[in-house]
UniProtKB/TrEMBL annotation:
Residues 404-416 have a biased composition (Polar residues). GO terms for molecular function: DNA binding; DNA-binding transcription factor activity, RNA polymerase II-specific; zinc ion binding. Keywords: Metal-binding, Nucleus, Transcription, Transcription regulation. This is Xylanolytic transcriptional activator regulatory domain-containing protein. Residues 6-127 form the Xylanolytic transcriptional activator regulatory domain. Its main location: nucleus. GO terms for cellular component: nucleus. It is found in: Nucleus. GO terms for biological process: DNA-templated transcription. Residues 404-443 are annotated as: Disordered. Pfam families: Fungal_trans.
Length: 474
């Protein structure tokens, strides 16, 4: 969204937008190891900076500009990480209003090509944030009608992050590039919006499962076409990951693919409800297998993000994605009788929990996601109905990234899911660990304790899950 070279040039000259500066500090301070933050919890470090960013933004609230939209989006991102969905929606909404007020669909032709590109990417960011913010408060997203063609951005990702802020020849950006990932991600926006709406409609009884299957088939075809449209260099392979890393785009590469598999996982999630077999001739097992395949790849991508330098996926949205992936792994533990599948599900579930333990110290909203996971697990224990049925609670669980959900209402208090109610961490003689709330100190011994449970065949999957969630929520 923000052309880094130009911003740094303006910052060095004292001309950078201070709304941008303070909002960036509010987002970035949590990741700093500077001694100035000693004793301040990572998730609390942005408070003083965001207050100043908000104060400055309010001074130009009726003066729309490219900079004002970017600043409002950054402030909205901050409040999303706090779990404050109302404040997030307000500031994202203001950015949208600024986009609608400006002739943003008519990119200034007298600007340099790189400045025109910044307009396109900012418009795309406003559109994405606006849609996701609406979904977070249970409103059907309505995309901006006007806007530049974002599916064919003129600069690839390498050029946009590395070109000098001086004049750029227009011809330098017209050659096809294998690294135009933001353009490809833009093409999937409509698919995920339609998936979210479809899930909500079925959960509210507005369409039957048969109708869901028909519409889901269309969206599946569009996702398949999206994947097939990727050039060979952007397909999900280990070789391509490392190639992107060398270009400084490893994080973007992983973000693109984890998003794609999250969308597939969401689309196929209703097929995990085994009771649907009696209502359709569609092979539910095949669709459920696709859901689980995407959940496995999501966990694999998260592992790559922690193992490969400069590939970290540390934005709060990935906490939500990890939780949904974990629920699919729970389905395998509940219903699979295949030793290989059970072993893989246990391993990926443990890795997801390690990832969530790390990221939750940075973003308060991840605690919301973990609380949802506990509520979902409780419904697995407390209900005789299939906990994977797509009721309204589950639809919100899947589609809302930042909102706080109440306890799920189950059809019965009889246990039937993830094992006996009396299985807790204390029953397997491992105490939940205490964590440093300030600087996320190393928890290696705690991870080792949990890892040892993974390989202890006498510890049931139920006990492992209970202990791991206790560990996360401690």
């Amino acid at each position: 969204m923000i052309y880094e070279a130009k911003f740094m040039h303006q910052l060095n000259e004292g001309r950078a937008s201070m709304v941008h500066v303070y909002a960036m500090c509010a987002l970035a301070a949590r990741f700093s190891n500077d001694p100035v933050f000693h004793g301040i919890a990572r998730g609390s470090r942005g408070t003083i900076y965001i207050s100043e960013a908000v104060r400055l933004a309010q001074q130009s609230i009726i003066m729309p500009s490219l900079e004002s939209m970017q600043g409002l989006i950054l402030i909205g991102y901050y409040y999303g990480g706090e779990g404050d969905t109302k404040a997030k929606h307000v500031y994202i909404g203001l950015a949208r209003l600024h986009a609608e007020t400006l002739p943003f669909w008519d990119v200034p032709q007298d600007d340099s090509p790189i400045s025109q590109e910044e307009y396109r990417r900012t418009w795309l960011s406003v559109n994405i944030a606006s849609d996701w913010s609406a979904t977070d408060i249970s409103i059907e997203p309505v995309s901006l009608i006007h806007g530049p063609a974002v599916d064919l951005l003129q600069f690839d990702d390498i050029a946009f992050q590395s070109l000098d802020p001086g004049p750029v020849e227009a011809t330098s950006c017209l050659h096809p590039s294998p690294y135009n990932m933001w353009a490809y991600m833009a093409r999937s926006l409509d698919i995920v919006n339609k998936t979210s709406v479809l899930l909500r409609r079925m959960s509210q009884g507005l369409i039957a499962f048969h109708d869901y299957c028909q519409e889901a088939g269309v969206l599946e075809g569009r996702l398949d076409q999206w994947e097939q449209s990727l050039p060979p260099s952007l397909r999900y392979t280990t070789e391509n990951i490392m190639s992107a890393v060398k270009q400084g785009l490893g994080r973007t590469f992983l973000a693109m693919h984890i998003g794609y598999h999250h969308f597939r996982e969401m689309l196929f999630f209703p097929f995990l409800d085994a009771r649907r077999d009696q209502y359709t001739t569609i092979n539910l097992t095949e669709k459920a297998t696709q859901c689980k395949r995407s959940a496995n790849i999501i966990s694999e991508i998260l592992q790559h993000s922690t193992d490969i330098e400069c590939c970290d996926l540390n934005c709060y949205i990935y906490g939500h994605i990890a939780v949904i992936s974990s629920c699919v792994h729970l389905h395998t533990l509940l219903f699979s009788d295949k030793p290989e599948s059970l072993s893989m599900a246990r391993q990926w579930l443990l890795f997801n929990f390690k990832y969530l333990m790390d990221i939750k110290s940075y973003w308060p909203v991840v605690e919301h996601s973990l609380s949802r996971l506990r509520k979902f697990q409780n419904s697995c224990q407390d209900s005789i109905s299939d906990p994977f049925v797509l009721d309204n609670w589950m639809a919100r669980f899947l589609t809302e990234h930042s909102s706080s959900l109440s306890e799920r209402q189950t059809s019965s208090n009889q246990p039937s899911g993830l094992g006996p109610e009396n299985i807790t961490a204390s029953n397997i003689n491992v105490e939940p660990p205490a964590h440093d709330p300030v600087n996320n100190s190393e928890t290696g011994c705690d991870v080792d304790n949990l890892s040892s449970l993974l390989h202890d065949q006498q510890v049931s999957s139920e006990a492992l899950v209970n202990h791991a969630i206790d560990w996360l929520l401690d």
